[in-house]
Amino acid sequence: MRACGLLSLVLAGAISTSLGAVPRFYVPPTLHLGSVNEVYAWDEVPVASFSVQVFRPGSVQPFLTSRSFPGRSPLGLPGSPKAWAWSAAWVPLDALAEPGDVSVKVVGPHGEDWATFPAQIEPRAFPTEEIHLDPAMTQLRAKPAVRKDIEADQIWAVYQRFNPAKPVTGPHFQLPVSAQIEHSAEYGDTREFLYSDGTSARDYHRGTDFKVPVGTPVTAPARGTVVLVANRMLTGKTVVVEHAPGLYSVYFHLSKILVVAGQKVQPGQKLALSGATGLVTGPHLHWEIRCQGISVDPFDLVNRGVLDTDSVIGIISSIENTIH
Question: Could you tell me the pTM of the whole model?
Answer without folding.
Answer: 0.90
